[in-house]
C-alpha cells in the first residue's frame, strides 16, 4: 500500500483504510434497514462525490427501495449561494415519499442546507440525511445528520469519491493533505 501520493501540486498521506470505511458503511446500512423498513425509501444520491459511498451502501440495503441520482447545479452566475442553485436530474416525484439524501461529506453544511431547502418544495413525507464524512469543526449551518459514517478533523481529504481538482475519486482508502 502506498502511504503517500502526489496529486498535481499536492502531497497526501493515507489516513483511513478501506476496511474501516467498509465497516462503517455496513453499520449505516444496518441502521437504515432497521429504520426505513416498510417505508420503501428513495435514495437521492448527490453527484459527483457520493457515487462511491452510494454504490457500497445500496448493495447492503435489503428493504425495497429506489435510487435516484441528482446534481446540484447553478443556473445563473457562479452559483455560490443557494438561491442560484437547484437540484437537477430528478426523474420521479418525491411527493409523500420517504427520502434518504446520500452525500459524500458535509463540510460547511452549505451544500446540504441548499439541498434540503430545494427538497422542501417537493413535499416528501420525510427527508433523512446520510453523509459518509462529517467535519463538525467546519460546520457553518446547523444540519441534522441522521446517518454519519465517520466524523473527521477539519483537513482536506481525497479518495472514496472525494476529489482534488477532479483526481482521487477512485482511491479506495482516504488520503489527507500534508500541510
Ligand atoms: P460543504 O462545505 O458542506 O458545502 O461541502 C461542499 C462540497 O465540498 C462537498 O460536497 C465536497 O464535494 C467538497 N468537499 C468538502 N470537504 C472536502 C474534502 O476534504 N475533500 C474533497 N472535497 C471536499
Ligand atoms: Mg459533494
Quickly describe the structure.
It contains 3 helices and 10 strands, in the order E-E-H-E-H-E-E-E-H-E-E-E-E.
Verbal overview:
The strands form two sheets. Strands 5-4-3-6-7-8 form a six-stranded mixed beta sheet, with helices on both faces. The chain has a four-stranded antiparallel beta sheet with strand order 1-2-10-9. The model has no long low-confidence stretch (mean pLDDT 95). The longest helix has 18 residues, at 18-35. It has helices at residues 18-35, 51-59, 110-120, and strands at 4-7, 10-16, 42-47, 66-74, 85-88, 98-106, 126-134, 147-151, 157-158, 174-177. It has a single domain (16-74, 95-177), classed as 3-Layer(aba) Sandwich (Rossmann fold), CATH 3.40.50.2020. The protein is an alpha/beta fold and 179 residues long. Helix content is 21%, strand content 33%. It contains three helices and ten strands; from the N terminus they run E-E-H-E-H-E-E-E-H-E-E-E-E. 29% of the residues are buried.
Amino acid at each position: 500500500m502506498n502511504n503517500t501520493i502526489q496529486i498535481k501540486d499536492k502531497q497526501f498521506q493515507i489516513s483511513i483504510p478501506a476496511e474501516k470505511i467498509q465497516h462503517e458503511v455496513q453499520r449505516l446500512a444496518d441502521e437504515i434497514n432497521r429504520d426505513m423498513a416498510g417505508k420503501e425509501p428513495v435514495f437521492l444520491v448527490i453527484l459527483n462525490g457520493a457515487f462511491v459511498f452510494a454504490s457500497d451502501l445500496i448493495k447492503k440495503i435489503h428493504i425495497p427501495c429506489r435510487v435516484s441520482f441528482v446534481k446540484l447545479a447553478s443556473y445563473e452566475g457562479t452559483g455560490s449561494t443557494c438561491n442560484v442553485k437547484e437540484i437537477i436530474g430528478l426523474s420521479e416525484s418525491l411527493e409523500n415519499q420517504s427520502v434518504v439524501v446520500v452525500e459524500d461529506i458535509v463540510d460547511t453544511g452549505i451544500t446540504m442546507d441548499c439541498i434540503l431547502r430545494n427538497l422542501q418544495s417537493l413535499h416528501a413525507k420525510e427527508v433523512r440525511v446520510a453523509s459518509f464524512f462529517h467535519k463538525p469543526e467546519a460546520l457553518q449551518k446547523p444540519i441534522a445528520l441522521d446517518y454519519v459514517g465517520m466524523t473527521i478533523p477539519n483537513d482536506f481529504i481525497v479518495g472514496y469519491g472525494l476529489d482534488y481538482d477532479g483526481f482521487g475519486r477512485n482511491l479506495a482508502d482516504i488520503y489527507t493533505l500534508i500541510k
